[in-house]
Amino acid sequence: MSQSSIVKKDSIVTLAVILLVAFSLGVINYRNNTEGKIIAARQVVTDLQITNAKLSEQISIFYTPQELTNRFPDTDIHINWNRDALLSFIGLPQPTPGYQAVLEDVRHEGGNLNIRYHIQEPNYTDSAGITVIAYPLMFVSIPKDNLVAGQTINIQFIETESGHTKSLKLSPNEI
């Protein structure tokens, strides 16, 4: 076998290996971002109550504690800001204060970051005299590496009992 045919054969084998590795990495990335990959997120509990109807169903994302205190001045939340981002969601109106949005899970599914939650009723039974409409506020801390720079991501808060969904689309320059 001549030297040039050996080099040609080696080049073809090398190219085939590179294509196989690239394909495998693409499949892994696709699976991680589309097949329900569970995200290590956590709910951050606060006693802040929202009563302003104009804030209902708003989603916000915070990358620094300053951004958070600019939006919610009375909130004192401590997370690892170098590692995590903080999402906030203000839910639909509830008949009395004390209702809470409770995190169930966070998953990457088909280009969406789906945050599933349910509404928990207050644990007191006597609400006589309370006539304030309140909006449950939920904070969710998620690792920033789940927000891939350069890609559009759609963040969806999904109430599991009713299926009601509210979305926030982040373009690559917002991540």
List descriptors.
single chain; 175 residues; alpha+beta; 2 helices; 9 strands; 31% strand
Describe what you observe in this structure.
By secondary structure, the chain is α+β, with helices and mostly antiparallel strands. It is 22% helix and 31% strand. It has two helices and nine strands. The strands form two sheets. Strands 1-5-6-8-9 form a five-stranded mixed β-sheet.
What is the total tally of β strands?
A: 9
> By helix and strand content, what is the structural category?
alpha+beta
Helical coverage, percent range: 10-25%
Question: What best-fitting shape do the alpha-carbon axes yield?
Answer: elongated
Assembly type? single chain
User: How many angstroms does the end-to-end distance come to?
Assistant: 55 Å
Number of H/I helices: 2
Biggest beta sheet summary: 5 strands, mixed
| Low-confidence regions | none
Order of helices and strands: HEEEHEEEEEE
Neighbour order of strands in the largest sheet: 1-5-6-8-9
Q: Assess the beta-strand content as a share of residues.
A: 25-35%
Q: Radius of gyration in whole Å, from Cα?
A: 23 Å
Mean model confidence by pLDDT: 83
